[in-house]
Structure formats: C-alpha cells, structure tokens
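Lab meeting minutes (informal)
Scribe: AK
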Amino acid sequence: MIVPAFLEELRSRDIQVWTEGDQLRCNAPTGALTPELRDQLRQRKSAIVQFLRSAEALARQERAIVPLQPRGQCVPIFAVPGHNGNVFSYRFLSQHLGDDQPFFGLQPPGVDGESEPLTCVEELAAYFAAQIRAFRPDGPYVIAGHCAGGTIAFELAQQLQQQGAAITFLALFSSPYPTWFRLLPQLRRRLAQRAEWLSTHLQALAVRSMEERRRYIIAKLAERRRQHEAQRDASQPSRLAAPDPELLRRTRLEAATLVALRRYTPHQFAGRAVLFLPNRDWLRPGNMALRWRRVARDTEEYCGPEGCEGDVMLHEPHVRTIVEQFRRCAHQPECPGRESNPHAVADTGF
C-alpha cells in the first residue's frame, strides 16, 4: 500500500499522524491503533515523514513561491520583486532563460489580501528563507532582486548562507543601496530633478525671441496644469465608485516595503554579488547601486544598452541583453579561492 493510501486508511480510523522534527507522532482512539498498524507505522516512518514534509511544503508554496518556469536542471533562481510585490515583472526574463532554468518568484505577505505586509527586511527574508528551504531543502540557489527587492534579496542570501545553504550568486537588477530610500536622499533627488528641469527650460528660453518665449511659457504652464488635473482626478476617484481592493493592497504593501527598506542596514555578505545596471551611466561615482561593492565579498557589474532604464530593463527588448549577461555570469565557476574584483565591469558590446 502506498503512503497516501495508508494515511487515508489511518484517517478513516480517526488516527492522526504528524511530524515533529524527525519524529513521527500519532494520536488514536482506544483500540484503533492495532499492532499491525503500529508495525506499519514503524516500518514506513521515513517514507511517511518525507511525504508529510512534502505536503507541508506544497501548502506553504502556494503562499509565497510562484513558479514562473518550474522545469530544468540548472540551479534554481528565487527572485524577489520590487516594492509592489509583482512577481510577474520577471516573466520575460524567465521565458528567455529557457526551459532548463527553473525560475520562481517570491510573493511577499500582503499581496494576497489575507495577511499583513511585513515592515522589517530581516523578517521578510526569514519568511522567504523558510519557504525556500521547505520547498527545496537542498541548495544551491541563485537569489535575485529587482529595484527595492534587491535589498530583501541581499538579506535573504545572507540568511540562507548562514543556514548552510550554498548561494551560487546574488543577482541585483537596478537595485539601489537601501539608504537611497531614506527621506533625506529622496529629498535631494527631488531637488536635483527640479534643478535639472529648471536648467532645461532656461536653456530653451535663451535661444528664443521674446514672442517665442511668451508662447513657450504659456504652453508649458498649460501642460503643467493638465498634469496636475490628471493627478488630482486619479487621486480623487468618484464617490460613487468603490475603491479598487487590489490597488489598496498594493498601496499598503508598497508603503510597508519602503518602511522596511529605510530601517535596514546591510552587513557583510560572504558571497558573490552581481550588479545588473540599466546602462553605463549607472557606473558614475556616487550612484547608490554601486555601494553594494562595500558589503559583498566579490562583486561584478553588467551594464545594459544605451537608453535602458531600471523600470524597463527586464522588459522587451532590453531583457534579451540582460539574459545574455546573466547566462555569461551563471557559467562562471565559483571557486573558493577566486580573486575578488570589486570593480569588474562586463563588456556588453554596446
């Protein structure tokens, strides 16, 4: 009799069986657990424990692990999405990597509407680590993160490594260092954007006649007014329209993720971190994505094509370049004595 059928027979006799670590526990009404059944439980202990663990893992998998491409023999990739929790932002990358590359998205609590979002990076990473170890107890793993998800992926890789799991490498796609999400850097960024906006318009006015300047200013003011009206309408939907529950969930999750990122301080990662940057402009000194070099044992950078930006680097057509870079990176051997090169930059051919 196979294990599921045997367990079904036990349930029909009101005999409950569960695991506690490596132990198999049993609770049965008086007389229900006959000597024959007791002997079968002893003989099948290992198979029953393995089956029950697999069932528990599958049940937990439904909450966090989304199989974007479950087939293949390559080292599986577990990828944390950006701050909105949308794992399907990886769909093009998983498709182009092919049928031999298992690829799983990690969906954070709060997306399903049945659980509260977490506001601590360490707790988010621990949640994902437990899911991964239950789903695939034996490594190695490739851990990935996009944008805000890069910080969570960094902590996840650390926790898995501390638990004894082998991390082939950590892939960070356009992922700023977490201090970038704090209030003061965000204020500086907005001020820099304002200054750039003002400089652009001053240069445009400088080469125009007085009449052309007047028309230019009127057109820009009208355009800005339309933008403000559109934003106001979007933020104040009709009172008759019910709030979109999906939008509300995403908004709460985004806010919780930003709180978590602002509180987090990375510690040293004894592994290989690969920074996938949208374009070569991200290599300029001061770019917050390059600060990961300070906290990883080994780092290397791959730059996307000219004109690529972080929010679309995993979309068509840019994803094709990223896939080739990822394959090149994945086929590099990870040797214990590999020399660290924190400033290595891959040639993309662009």
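Next up, CB showed the second protein from the same session:
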Amino acid sequence: MRSTWIAVLGALLCGACVGQTGGSTVTFPVAAAGAVDAVAGQPLSFSADGFDVVLTRAKLHIGAVYLDESQSVSGGQATGCYLTGTYVAQETSSLDVDLLNPAAQRFGAPALGITDPPSLVGQVWLTGGDVNAASDSTPILVVAGTATKSGMAFPFAGTITIGSNRLPSSGTSGGNPICKARIVTPIPARVTLRNTGGLLLRVDPRPLFELVDFSTLPADPLSGGFVIPDKPGLVAAQNFYNALHSTAPYTFSWTE
C-alpha cells in the first residue's frame, strides 16, 4: 500500500511541477464525520426496509482517501481499483471514525493536493494495510443496535473485515483483485482545494441497513442476540457489505 501511495504522490507532484495544471501544491487537513443529524454519545434511530433501527455503535476504519480530476470511463480501468486521469489529492493516514458523531474527526496527518483542476470523484480505501494483500484482519466496520418489526426485537451486532473472506471463488481467474473489495469508487466529489479550509468526508450509516432483513440473521448464543456474519453467503450479510462498498453512505465537501 505504501508503494502505491508513493507512486500516486509522485504522479501528483510531477503533474504540478511540469505545469500541466494552473494550481499549486497544498497541504490541508482531512476529517471524517458521521450522520449530520446524529448526536454524539447517543443512539441513532431510523427506519430501514420495514424495521425500526436503534443504532448504538458504528465505527468505520478508513485506510486512505483520494480525489481525482476525471470521471471513470467504462472499460478504461485495468483493474477497477485505480482511477484514470490525475489524482489531485491524497490522505494516506488512517482513521477510525465514529459514525454516530456528527463532528469532524481529523486524520492523523495532513493531506497533499493541488488547487487546480478541481476533483470530480473520490475514493475511500477500506483497508488496514496493503490494499492488495490477500489477508487483512482489521475490523473495518463494527456495528451494534436493535431492530424491531411487528413487535419483535432483534438485538444485533456485526463486524466486517475485508480479507480472504472477500476473495473471489477458486473458479474465478483474473480481473477481480482483492483491492476491488476494499476501494469504494467512484464517489461523486466536486471539490476545489484551497489554501484555507479542509476536506470533509461524511459517512451516514443508515444506507448500510436498507436491505438487511434482521429476521434472517443467525442467533448469537453468547449475547442472546443476532449476528451479521462476516462472510458472503447469507443474503442479509452480503447486502450489508454491498451497501458499505457502495457510494451511498459517502459525501465529500470542502469546508472552512
């Protein structure tokens, strides 16, 4: 993953140095935040797919964030992991963000970018290390809460990892590297970097549960509740992961 970051950084700097853009190189803070209407320290209540959900825990591990000047072109990407065009911003430190906290939670190090051209799309890397490594045991998403429907309560918990459990089946060959399972792209991100302010990535946890049928989850004998399994197979669990990997929960903006 570090070698990938260095390559992207080199391309970004070279693009700025040779005058291919009219912008200048800048460093800036990046933060992530949960649902805008959440209240820090309190559960988030909402409805999803006929269930009333009270979410008491939702933490997401973000390994990196990138912005690119070009929209993706169908068939134009060799692996579907790296965007075509020029990367104009990169945040390569990681962050565990509380999705029940609407306040900006800063990444540990500033990001690097160029002020022109503006970006059109972004990427969120859901990885705890090398984005191309087959194995990664990092808890990417941890959730807990209770869903109710027709008077029945389903206390639930779940942890998503993206490692060997997301590798294609043994009968599949080529064209589907593990990085595809870890990189959320392309997320709309019409952002112009400036010398003041910073980049905010807001992640709303509600879209993650839109197609989760809690009544089909397996029971957890340890907690007495239900568990969202960390592997494909069960439809509710796969829908949960698919929603995490979709662009729906993610919104980029520049803020002063």
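CB comment: The two ends are 30 Å apart (CA to CA).
No objections, moving on.
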